[in-house]
UniProtKB/TrEMBL annotation:
A Pfam family: Dymeclin
Family per record: Belongs to the dymeclin family.
Entry coiled-coil feature ranges: none
Organism: Oedothorax gibbosus
UniProt entry keywords in alphabetical sequence: Lipoprotein, Myristate
Protein name, UniProt field: Dymeclin
Gene Ontology BP annotations: Golgi organization
One GO cellular component term: Golgi apparatus
């Protein structure tokens, strides 16, 4: 028969006698001596229609659930893989296995309709074995060497003129995987093979992890980005988004009695395979893994989106699909072959509830940055706090998070802050009992005040610990964007802002003094050894902090009485900046404000309450006119992606997959990032 233009032979149907082989599950220590695996990796070629395949694929083996499980499995079968590496170019048994899988995959829909669990189970087994082999080949030989392993040795011997090229066989395999993911209904019987199809695609695309060449010249990526795969790209993106959004739990194991006509022991083992056996897990870590299809679908989606981004080299249809899909709740929009519709609200809710890891942050970033329609929906959502609060918590937990995740959280906030509606609405959203903020009890605070607080805290953390220019630049840019619309800042945040100014100002003057004296040893552990570089950074940060304060007072003075109170109370802080010529232009407006309000405060009797002072400031502010101040342009910053985004995103993405995909990767030959270095 022909499958997608590729000639494959049917294998005989499984027999009752062979079923009995499945009654005893294989264990890791038995794999090394398994006679069928030894025959498969041996020196004799096995035809695709040989009954051997029924025997090889009739095993019940609980699939690995974690990276450590995968490593144990690979260690057990490594001798077989090493042997296969040398024998396969002669026998062509891997090509034969691919043909066997293609036959199974072509009949999967019918098997599902007929509730043929045994057939689905064998299809899963064939794909699982194939994935392990392909992964080993890619890690050991790279893409070019793997393609050589897919040359049809048997066909070359019997009929060289009809021998198919490895690229065509690989395309047939990838198309079959797409069909499993897109076309097959997802239920308890098909969950495992759907996960395995996603895993296998990730493994095939991992050729990039072991290559220094761009994906645009990769055979695997050329297949995926063009032809039949490209035609199905909108449907694949929609399906992967759906798997991620629904967060469907891995089916639980059922009692042996539900196994139908098969004997109880076999039925139980078979069901464990088909449901990935997650139902028997009880630990907290495993509990988070029961959404394995959602997690792996998101990783696959991110791989497809972030490669081949330069359209001059090769168009990426997956990016086009993700960046243009519309809201299914919008009746006016009609779905087309190129642009699909999906439920924005459901996707938004899932992003909010899972925004704890790199992959979710990457998806949120891509959608906000590149899909204008989805971005508009998010910005105008009445539940925007459900997105912003998790982002702020990520920043609050910065010491425990990797730097890339902190960058992504900040960039998302910066993108949101570019929208005037967002900057206005966050100050009207009240939050209660922010329990994760442990430095002070915040019984009630606006989302805007909390955002300003966490950004201030992140700047302070960066200036004393990380010394990362991009980190504080993004923080300051977000604060600046929000400044013209910031209202009713919480007293605690006002105090934190002035304290940051004071601490940075004192440090600036201290370094200025020390930089004038040569040969002084710097004992302050917070100071970098390069004084001039530190001075330049401090100058930049202080200037921006003063400009942001200027913006607060210029555009929202009457709506920021708490801030005005703190500025007047701590007016001595500004003595740090007046002598410096590079701050005098910014200090001009602040001094005008101080000159207007200070006499009113000084006229009060001593021992007046904070409330009385606040009321006086409030009444005096009604006499204030912003015409007194020097007109300055509104601060506006816009996030712009680097000219070569792949240089950042591809190594970052594969490091995320390396650490979080539950697939064990042999790090020996990884080229695009250092697997031993945390992000």
């Amino acid at each position: 028969m022909y499958y997608n233009g590729f000639n494959v032979n049917l294998i005989p149907p499984i027999t009752t006698k062979l079923l009995k082989m499945g009654t005893s599950s294989s264990s890791l220590h038995e794999l090394r001596d398994n006679k069928y695996l030894q025959q498969f990796s041996g020196k004799e070629p096995i035809s695709p229609n040989d009954p051997f395949w029924n025997q090889l694929l009739s095993f019940t083996f609980a699939p690995p659930h974690s990276c450590s499980d995968c490593r144990l499995l690979e260690d057990s079968i490594r001798p077989m893989l090493d042997t296969l590496l040398n024998s396969n170019p002669v026998t062509g048994n891997v090509v034969a296995l691919i043909k066997v899988f293609l036959v199974h995959s072509s009949e999967l829909k019918a098997a599902v309709l007929c509730d043929n669990k045994v057939f689905i189970w064998q299809a899963y087994n064939s794909l699982f074995i194939l994935r392990c082999i392909l992964k080993y080949f890619i890690e050991t030989l790279g893409e070019e060497g793997t393609l050589k392993q897919l040359e049809d040795a048997q066909q070359h011997k019997s009929d060289p003129s009809n021998a198919s090229e490895p690229e065509k066989l690989l395309e047939a395999l990838i198309v079959a995987l797409y069909e499993i993911i897109i076309d097959m209904s997802l239920d308890t019987k098909t969950y495992a093979i759907t996960v395995e199809a996603v895993h296998t695609l990730i493994v095939l695309l991992s050729v990039q992890m072991f290559s220094s060449r761009p994906a645009s010249i990769s055979t695997v990526y050329s297949i995926v980005m063009q032809g039949q795969c490209a035609n199905r790209s909108p449907l694949l993106v929609k399906t992967l988004l759906h798997h991620y959004t629904t967060q469907q739990l891995c089916p639980h194991c059922v009692s042996a009695g539900e196994g139908g006509s098969l004997i109880a022991g076999f039925a139980s083992g078979l069901w464990s395979v088909l449901t990935l056996n997650y139902g028997s897990k009880s630990s907290q870590k495993d509990a988070t893994s029961v959404t394995v299809l959602a997690n792996q679908s998101l990783l696959l989606l991110l791989v497809l989106i972030n490669h081949c981004t330069n359209e001059k080299e090769m168009k990426n249809p997956y990016r086009a699909a993700l960046f243009s899909f519309a809201d299914s709740n919008e009746i006016s929009f009609e779905e087309t072959l190129l642009v699909f519709k999906y439920d924005y609200n459901a996707l938004f809710k899932t992003i909010c509830t899972t925004l704890k890891d790199d992959q979710t942050a990457l998806l949120a970033y891509l959608l906000l940055h590149q899909n204008p329609s989805f971005r508009h929906y998010i910005v105008y959502s009445s539940e925007i706090s459900n997105l912003v609060v998790p982002l702020l918590k990520l920043l609050y937990d910065a010491p425990d998070k990797n730097s890339h995740l902190i960058y992504m959280a900040l960039i998302i906030l910066l993108i949101l802050s570019e929208e005037e509606f967002f900057d206005k609405q966050v100050h009207g959203i009240k939050l209660k009992n922010i329990i994760w903020y442990s430095e002070r009890m915040l019984s009630e605070i606006s989302l805007g005040s909390l955002t300003v607080l966490i950004l201030i805290r992140t700047i302070q953390y960066n200036m004393t610990r990380m010394h990362d220019k991009y980190l504080h630049t993004n923080c300051l840019a977000a604060l600046a964007n929000m400044s013209a619309h910031t209202q009713d800042l919480h007293p605690y945040i006002c105090e934190k802002y002035l304290n940051l100014l004071e601490n940075m100002g004192k440090r600036y003057l201290r370094i200025m003094d020390q930089s004038k004296t040569e040969g002084i040893q710097i004992n302050d552990e917070l100071m970098p050894t390069d004084l001039m570089q530190d001075l330049s950074v401090l100058d930049e940060v202080l200037r921006m902090l003063l400009e942001i304060l200027n913006s607060f007072l210029t555009f929202q003075l009457k709506n920021n009485i708490n801030l005005l109170y703190t500025v007047l109370y701590k007016k001595a802080v500004f003595n740090l900046f007046r002598p410096a010529s590079n701050f005098q232009d910014i200090m001009q407006n602040i001094d005008i404000v101080l000159a207007f309000f200070s006499p009113q405060i000084e006229s009060l009797e001593q021992n007046v309450s904070v409330r009385e002072v606040t009321e006086l400031i409030k009444s005096t502010s009604q006499l204030w006119s912003k015409d007194k101040m020097k007109k300055l342009p509104e601060l506006k910053f816009k996030y712009v992606e680097e000219g070569q985004p792949e240089d950042f995103f591809i190594p970052y993405l594969w490091s995320v997959i390396f650490h979080s995909s539950d697939i064990y990767w042999n790090s020996k030959n990884i080229l695009i990032f250092n697997p031993y270095k945390s992000s």
